[in-house]
């Protein structure tokens, strides 16, 4: 069985069209590649924290997560955002199963190296693949929020891109990041254009020159880690283009395809 991990960013979730969900359902029905959705919700968390007068900061694209912030992160991600996506898929006739990484010990995490710097931010150590495959075998499309569980049942906030990459690695699945941009943008003749493809070397230089910044940094890092650890194909796709997901699966050139090294094309 082949799987595809579809990561939906918080920047695009509210704008995903009914056709996006229909395409995901169609994929599942055809049984060639089984979809697994992992979602973010960064902007929704920030809005809720602001309403609650709780300050929030990011270091290296990761939200510094105090106990107080963690409560809100879990409430927003595993509550409202997760159920919003489950309802959207149900609405189009799909069988959706909303889960967080805590349910069934789906995502086991340890704190990332510097707990003083980031608070309760984790990195995924283990994915309960058996549990995930069982859900899929029962014809459900898993919709996963990136809260994980660790030693002593401690909760951790996981960047959604990194959670999606960990799941793709564990399943050797293709991975796509659905976001609010048409791909990795670079300046060409004073205008921004998406790269059709890029490599580890180019990504490192784009980060060093601040052309890749903010939330794009964990995304490209997650993409490279997934490729290094066994995901065959990884791309960043435009959530505003309805067919970008089906085009990616069909092997068409769409969004930015990320590779470890340059592939020499033979024509
Ligand atoms: N070179 C780049 N090309 C495109 N977007 C970039 C680039 N560098 C930084 N970004 C920012 O990354 C954002 C996407 O990351 P993020 O907001 O975390 O999205 P998501 O919600 O999909 O996870 C874009 O909206 C853009 O502001
Ligand atoms: C540690 C960390 O930064 N966690 C993220 C989790 C949500 C997320 O990643 O959402 P997007 O995909 O919309 O960015 C956060 O708290 O915002």
From TrEMBL:
<keyword id="KW-0067">ATP-binding</keyword>
<feature type="site" description="Transition state stabilizer">
    <location>
        <position position="7"/>
    </location>
</feature>
<feature type="binding site">
    <location>
        <position position="63"/>
    </location>
    <ligand>
        <name>substrate</name>
    </ligand>
</feature>
<dbReference type="InterPro" id="IPR001048">
    <property type="entry name" value="Asp/Glu/Uridylate_kinase"/>
</dbReference>
<keyword id="KW-0028">Amino-acid biosynthesis</keyword>
<dbReference type="InterPro" id="IPR036393">
    <property type="entry name" value="AceGlu_kinase-like_sf"/>
</dbReference>
<feature type="binding site">
    <location>
        <position position="157"/>
    </location>
    <ligand>
        <name>substrate</name>
    </ligand>
</feature>
<dbReference type="InterPro" id="IPR037528">
    <property type="entry name" value="ArgB"/>
</dbReference>
<keyword id="KW-0547">Nucleotide-binding</keyword>
<dbReference type="Pfam" id="PF00696">
    <property type="entry name" value="AA_kinase"/>
</dbReference>
<feature type="binding site">
    <location>
        <begin position="41"/>
        <end position="42"/>
    </location>
    <ligand>
        <name>substrate</name>
    </ligand>
</feature>
<protein>
    <recommendedName>
        <fullName>Acetylglutamate kinase</fullName>
        <ecNumber>2.7.2.8</ecNumber>
    </recommendedName>
</protein>
<keyword id="KW-0055">Arginine biosynthesis</keyword>
<dbReference type="GO" id="GO:0005737">
    <property type="term" value="C:cytoplasm"/>
</dbReference>
<dbReference type="GO" id="GO:0003991">
    <property type="term" value="F:acetylglutamate kinase activity"/>
</dbReference>
<comment type="pathway">
    <text>Amino-acid biosynthesis; L-arginine biosynthesis; N(2)-acetyl-L-ornithine from L-glutamate: step 2/4.</text>
</comment>
<dbReference type="InterPro" id="IPR004662">
    <property type="entry name" value="AcgluKinase_fam"/>
</dbReference>
<keyword id="KW-0963">Cytoplasm</keyword>
<keyword id="KW-0418">Kinase</keyword>
<feature type="domain" description="Aspartate/glutamate/uridylate kinase">
    <location>
        <begin position="3"/>
        <end position="234"/>
    </location>
</feature>
<comment type="similarity">
    <text>Belongs to the acetylglutamate kinase family. ArgB subfamily.</text>
</comment>
<feature type="site" description="Transition state stabilizer">
    <location>
        <position position="219"/>
    </location>
</feature>
<dbReference type="GO" id="GO:0005524">
    <property type="term" value="F:ATP binding"/>
</dbReference>
<keyword id="KW-0808">Transferase</keyword>
<dbReference type="GO" id="GO:0042450">
    <property type="term" value="P:L-arginine biosynthetic process via ornithine"/>
</dbReference>
<comment type="function">
    <text>Catalyzes the ATP-dependent phosphorylation of N-acetyl-L-glutamate.</text>
</comment>
